[in-house]
C-alpha cells in the first residue's frame, strides 16, 4: 500500500482550518500522482494504491469539512464515486486469482455435479466485469479532469500552489 | 450505512488539538455502540456499520496523528487497524455470500454446483470469523483498551469525557 507522505509544518495549537488545508493539499497531490500510471489496466498495484489515496482524501474531507465555509460534499461525492469504481476493480483483481486457485483444487465431477463449470463461469464473469469497471473508471477520471476537479477543490480549500 | 455521529463541540473555529480529541473519541464510541449487535449477528448490516465506523476512526487517527507523540500513538493506531481488519474479513465473506446467492438463479444449471459449493465454503469460513471477532473484543476488555485510549487522548488533547457526550443524535458539548 502506498506510504503516506509526511505533512510538514502542522501546528496543533492553531486552528483546524490551516492545518486541515495543509493536510488536504498533500493528500490531493497523492491522488493525482497516480495519473501517469493508470492508463494501463494491468497496473493492478497502482490502481489499488490510487483507491487507497482516494479513500484517505474522502475521509479527510468528511472530517475537516466543518472547518471550511465552502461546501465540500459535492467533492466528497465525486471522490467516493471514483473510490467505489476502483474498489470494484480491486475486488475483481483479488477474486479472480482466488477463484482460479479454488478451481485448481477441485476434483472432477461428483454425484452433486461438476463444480468446475460454475467456478470457471464466475472467473469469466469477473474478468469481463473488470474490463467494464476499468472503462468506467477512465471515463470518470477523464470527466473529473475536464471539469477541473482539482482546481475547484483547491480553490474551495484555499490551497495555494 | 448508518450516518456518522456528529462531533460535539466541533466547529470552524476549533483548535486542531481539541478537534483531534473530539473526533477520535466520538468515532471510538460510535464504533463501539455497534459492538453488541455485531456480536449477536442477527443482521449483517450491523457488522458493516461497525466496520465503517472503525474506518472512520482510523481516518481520524491518520488525520490527527500530528497531535500525538508518534511512538506512543502507534500502538493505538495498530489496535484500531486490527479491529478494521478482523471486521473486514467477515464483511468480505458476507458480501460474497449475498452476491453469489443472488447470482446463482441467473446462472446456467450446469454452473450451479460450483456456485453452491462456493457459497457453502464461504458460509463455513464466516462462521469461524464470528469467533475471531468475539475473541478480539474480549482481549480489548482484558487489556482495558478503551480506558487507556480515552486517558491517552485526554492527556494529549485536553478533551475530557466528563465534559463531552458523544452520541448518535443528542451528542453535545457540555
Keywords:
heterodimer, A: 161 residues, mainly alpha, 5 helices, 70% helix, elongated, B: 174 residues, two-stranded antiparallel ribbon, 6 helices, 2 strands, disordered C terminus
Radius of gyration of chain B, in Å, reads 19 Å
Q: What's the tally of helices of chain B?
A: 6
Q: How can the largest sheet of chain B be summarized?
A: 2 strands, antiparallel
Spans of chain B of at least 5 consecutive residues whose pLDDT stays below 50 are 170-174
Whole-number mean pLDDT of chain B: 91
How would you sum up this structure in a few lines?
The complex is a heterodimer of chains A (161) and B (174). By secondary structure, chain A is an all-alpha fold. Chain A has five helices and no strands.
Question: Can you describe what's shown?
Answer:
The complex is a heterodimer of chains A (161) and B (174). Chain A is mainly α. Helix content of chain A is 70%, strand content 0%. Chain A contains five helices and no strands. In chain A, α1 runs antiparallel to α2, α2 (44-64) packs antiparallel against α3 and α3 (73-105) packs antiparallel against α4. The longest helix of chain A has 33 residues, at 73-105. By secondary structure, chain B is an all-alpha fold. Chain B has six helices and two strands, in the order ααααααββ. Chain B has helices spanning 16-32, 35-40, 44-63, 70-103, 112-142, 145-157; strands at 164-165, 172-173. Chain B has a two-stranded antiparallel ribbon with strand order 1-2. In chain B, α1 (16-32) packs antiparallel against α3 (44-63). Chain B is elongated, with a radius of gyration of 19 Å. Chain A binds chain B through residues 4, 7, 10-17, 19-20, 23, 56, 59-60, 62-64, 66-69, 102, 106, 112-122, and chain B through 4, 7, 10-17, 19-20, 23, 55-56, 59-60, 62-63, 66-67, 100, 103, 107-108, 110-118, 121.
